[in-house]
Design a protein that fits this description.
With 129 residues, the chain is an alpha+beta fold. Strands 1-2-3 form a 3-stranded antiparallel sheet. The chain has a two-stranded antiparallel ribbon with strand order 4-5. A hairpin with a 5-residue loop joins β1 and β2. The longest helix has 16 residues. The mean pLDDT is 78.
Length: 129
């Protein structure tokens, strides 16, 4: 991410995915020196990648009663953009961009989350015939 080394991999938590995969959540705080913004990254790794990156050392995020990946909420980028636009318009002039992201990004992201992966998978799909 950043050229000064600020963006080196720093996974926070791991959780199990389908077919033996592992997901890792990383939050990058941004860097003024590199002029990069805040980012949230979810890595999907097969077993070999997870071992080579020593992912087993991260705390495991467990979801009771179902596989973890089924509980992940899907972010609709259109809803996220609309929410950020609305929040930014409402508070125009009150914030520098860093302050706005700090105060509103998490809330906007939460509001942009729709159904879980499991709920999405259960929806009827149009036939490709």
């Amino acid at each position: 991410m950043g050229q000064c080394g600020c963006g080196d991999f720093d996974g926070l938590v791991r959780f199990a995915g389908p077919d033996g995969t592992t997901y890792v959540l990383e939050v990058y705080p941004g860097c003024r020196d590199c002029d990069t913004g805040v980012m949230v990254t979810i890595y999907k790794m097969d077993q070999q990648e997870a071992v080579s990156w020593r992912i087993e050392e991260l705390p495991e995020w467990k979801f009771e009663g179902r596989p973890a990946w089924e509980n992940v909420r899907i972010v609709d980028h259109r809803r996220l953009q609309a929410r950020l636009d609305a929040d930014h318009a409402e508070h125009a002039g009150e914030y520098e961009i860093d302050g706005f992201i700090h105060d509103f990004a998490a809330e906007s992201l939460r509001n942009a989350c729709g159904e879980t992966v499991d709920e999405w998978r259960r929806q009827p799909r149009a036939s490709s015939d």
